[in-house]
Amino acid sequence: MQQEKRVKYINPETMPPTFGYTHVVEVRNARTIYVSGQVALNQEGELVGAGDLAAQTKQVFENIQSALEAADVQFHDVVKLTFFMTDIAQMPVVREIRDQYINTANPPASSAVEIRKLIRDDLLIEIEAIAVGNL
Q1: How many whole angstroms separate alpha carbon 73 and alpha carbon 59?
Q2: What are the GO cellular component annotations (predicted)?
Q3: pLDDT (tens digit, 9 = 90+) per residue, 69-116?
Q4: For residue 2, what pLDDT band results from cuts at 50, 70 and 90?
Q5: Banded pLDDT at 135 (limits 50, 70, 90)
Q6: What sign does the dihedral 41-44-50-55 (CA atoms) show?
Q7: Regarding the domain delimited by 3-133, which CATH topology (the fold level of the hierarchy) does it fall under?
Q8: Is the dihedral of CA 63, 66, 70, 75 positive or negative?
Q9: Quick one: pLDDT at residue 29?
Q10: Do the Cβ atoms of 94 and 21 come closer than 8 Å?
C-alpha cells in the first residue's frame, strides 16, 4: 500500500494552528517500527558535539536514520517524534535540523518535553521515533 493511502495527516480546523508538526496521523494496514530514544553518541559510543545542541541534534537524526534503514523504512515513514531536551527554548535549533530529514509538507505528530537531565550530564537532547512500513 502506498504511503498516501496508508498514512493520513489531519489538522482539524477546530484545533490550534501547527508549526512543524501534525495534530493527528492516522495509519492503516502497516508495520509499526519503534525507534528507542537516540542520543548524540556515534558508532564508537563517543559523544558528538559536547555543549553544542546543533551538532548533537544532527548526530541524533543520523542515528535515527540508521535505525530506520535497518528496518527498511525512511524518514518519510516517520509518523511520530518525541523530543526530550534540557533547554526547550532551543527548539528552533532542533527544528532547523529536523526539517533537513522529515517531510515538511506532512510532518509527523510530535511532542517536545523539557527535562532536567538525560542519562548522561553531557547530553542535551534525546529523540524517539515511530515509523510505519509495508506489511
Answers
A1: 19
A2: cytosol
A3: 999 999 999 999 999 999 999 999 999 999 999 999 999 999 999 999
A4: low
A5: confident
A6: negative
A7: 60s Ribosomal Protein L30; Chain: A; (3.30.1330)
A8: positive
A9: 94
A10: no
47 vs 132: CA distance, rounded Å: 29
Count of CA atoms in the C-beta half-sphere (13 A) of 81: 31
Provide the greatest CA pair distance for the chain. Answer: 47
Angle 75-117-36 (CA atoms, 0-180°, nearest 5)?
30
Amino acid at 95: R
pLDDT for position 8 = 95
Using an 8 Å Cβ cutoff, are 7 and 132 in contact? yes
